[in-house]
Amino acid sequence: MSGAALEVRGLTTRFETRGGMVTAVNDVSFSVQPGRIMGLVGESGSGKSVTGFSILGLIDKPGEISGGEVLIDGEDLRRMTPDALRRMRGRRVSMVFQDPMMTLNPVLRVGDQMAMAVRVHDRVSKRAAWERARAALETVGIPAPAERLRAYPHQLSGGMRQRVAIATALLHRPSVIIADEPTTALDVSIQGQILAEVRRLADETGTAIVWVTHDLAVVSSLADDICVMYAGRIVESGTAEAVIGAPRHPYTRGLIDSVPSLHPPGQPLPQIPGATPQLSHLPAGCPFRPRCPKASDLCRTDPPRFGRDHPVLCHHPLTEEPA
Ligand code: SF4
């Protein structure tokens, strides 16, 4: 889609394992417009985090990105030299990890490491870099930011550390941020505050955000668009309103039904039977078939993708919408 901050086309990532080659990300395509938040949702092992890492080219052996394109503002990261890719990371595309200590160095003051992150890409004085770091902390709602800059990470709460990680990702006003389960380990109240800040940041800065999560309740309140992943593939995508309001894939329906906050009180909470399949032992045809209430013999063959604005990968989508 033209004008997209991030466009992913046919991204495929494989890993060599003792059991043979497994495809963790299988022909994944989506785009995110500036200022929009896209929720990439699925259970553990669905391939959503590997997709996030693949976008930034952070896949090491025995893994490999075997195909596809990743365009940031129209430039393909996969065609860049390693040096050009390094310059791109942190400046035009950043990542926020589930554990902020994957970003923060425990033996450096917050201000020193944020200033360093500024000066990796921009030739500015240390004082100017500290000022930019202070402004970034202010942007993510950290009180007394000048004081926090002098703190070490262990002197901050978990929620505060995650805000610092988000502020660090924002230092260069990137076009795209990939956030991998960044609020999963936080209290619900802190999670709510961070989600509100992220929504505001996307609106104010125009940064496109990919929010990787297993938590459909989080994306239902945060995301503009949703892609649902299962066994390495996107099985349903569309606006959050369409996907949550009228899910077309039986897996999405099962996910929604099993979210307590989206379920009528006082009624038993349904569950999706079984577990996520091992990628090395996928059933023939649709990988959701052993768990699907709508499975038929036809589902032993690869499902087609139906629909344009709200596509679904299924032989028997839940509505009558034509292909
Ligand atoms: Fe279920 Fe068949 Fe659709 Fe797969 S293709 S989700 S098994 S109905």
From TrEMBL:
**Which residues are in the ABC transporter domain?**
6-256
Family membership, please give it: Belongs to the ABC transporter superfamily.
Q: What is its main location?
A: membrane
Name the species this protein comes from. Pseudoponticoccus marisrubri
Q: PANTHER family from the xrefs?
A: DIPEPTIDE TRANSPORT ATP-BINDING PROTEIN DPPD, OLIGOPEPTIDE TRANSPORT ATP-BINDING PROTEIN APPD
UniProt keyword list: ATP-binding, Cell membrane, Membrane, Nucleotide-binding, Transport
Could you tell me where this protein is found in the cell? Cell inner membrane
Q: A Pfam family in this protein?
A: ABC_tran
Per its record, how is this protein called by name? Methionine ABC transporter ATP-binding protein
Q: Which GO terms describe its cellular component?
A: plasma membrane
Single GO MF annotation = ATP hydrolysis activity
Q: Which PROSITE patterns does this one have?
A: ABC_TRANSPORTER_1, ABC_TRANSPORTER_2
The record, for InterPro entries, names:
AAA+_ATPase, ABC_Ni/Peptide_Import, ABC_transporter-like_ATP-bd, ABC_transporter-like_CS, Oligopep_ABC_C, P-loop_NTPase
Which example biological process does GO assign this protein? Answer: transmembrane transport
Tell me the NCBIfam families matching this sequence. oligo_HPY
Q: How does it sit in the membrane?
A: Peripheral membrane protein
